[in-house]
Amino acid sequence: MPQFSLKPKGSQFYSVIKAFFLKATGFLLPITFLFFLPNNAMACTAGELSWDGTDLKYCKNDNTTWVKVEGTSLGGTCTNGTMSYNGSNALRMCKGGAWYDVSTETANGTCSGSAATAGQFYYDSTLQNYVYCAGAGGLKQFSEKVTCAGTLYGGYCWYHGSSNQSCTTVCSTHGGYNSATLTYAGSSGSNTNCQNVMNAMGADGSTVFSSNWGLGLGCFNSTDASGTRYRDSAATTAAGQSAAALRACACNN
To answer: Are residues 37 and 161 in the same domain?
Structure first.
């Protein structure tokens, strides 16, 4: 069965920094200084897979956010950081010397394209998640390690605000505002993402309309009986609010 090995990023990070200081200064700064630059602050490439020594993780569309992949222990022995198709409609990953399934959510559709054969997987930039072919189970996407009391979609935790409520207020009891409000479903996101988030939250309305409300509301639906869905083209902000809008807010938990 195919296996995929994922190399930790720490050694690569050190090599890049070392080369930079040697070139710029002619000498290498003490290694203790370099440790003040945290690994999780590194930029990454959307869809990049990495093994951080404890968990499998991948990079979101913002080229900054790493998301860990959820899994349930299967036992056995293996080499940390490897991935394998188990032959029974599921991917598995190795951590702590034991196999874990790559817990999944249904991603709608049949196996095709870059995931036409059982075990093949690829990064879907619309879902901002990995999708793989689970054989007879069709396409599935990775479940992510996110603590969320709201609606988990696209790797982010969503809440549906009340009338005249900003996302700052909505997220004040949920770990604070998350920029996915802007980048995923807001002015820097897409109507499709806004639509999918609204569907996942069970919001009223159907089609999403793009319109410049000038209030930085991002993805929202109206408070009237129609519940019409909109994506405000004005730059989405955490503070934006309107008595006519029920905002879709991404919070940190």
So the answer is: no
Residue 36's pLDDT band (cuts 50, 70, 90): very low
Separation between Cα atoms, residue 130 and residue 162, nearest integer Å:
32
Task: Characterise 41 by phi-psi region: left (phi > 0), alpha (psi -120 to 50), beta (else).
Answer: alpha
Q: Say how far apart CA 209 and CA 186 lie, in whole Å.
A: 12
Beta strands at 208-211 and 156-160: parallel, antiparallel or unpaired: unpaired
Contact 154, 173 (CB under 8 A): no
Residues 21 and 47 in one domain: yes
Helix %, strand %, coil % of the chain (to 5): 20, 30, 50
- Cα angle, residue 157 at apex, residues 191 and 106 outer, rounded to 5°: 75
The Cα 184–Cα 127 span in angstroms is 10
| Residue 84 bridge partners (DSSP) | 3, 92
pTM of structure: 0.51
Domain range holding 219? 151-251
For the residues 237-249, what does the mean pLDDT come to? 97
Do 95 and 173 share a domain, yes or no? no
Q: Answer whether 157's CB lies under 8 Å from 252's CB.
A: yes
DSSP-assigned letters across all residues of 106-135? E--S-SBTTB-STT-EEEETTTTEEEEE-G
**Distance between CA atoms of 221 and 232, rounded to whole angstroms?**
10
DSSP assigned state of 87: S
What is the tally of structural domains in the chain? 2
Alpha helices, H only, the chain: 10-25, 31-34, 167-170, 180-183, 191-201
| Of 173 and 65, more confident | 173
| Strand, helix or coil for residue 130 | strand
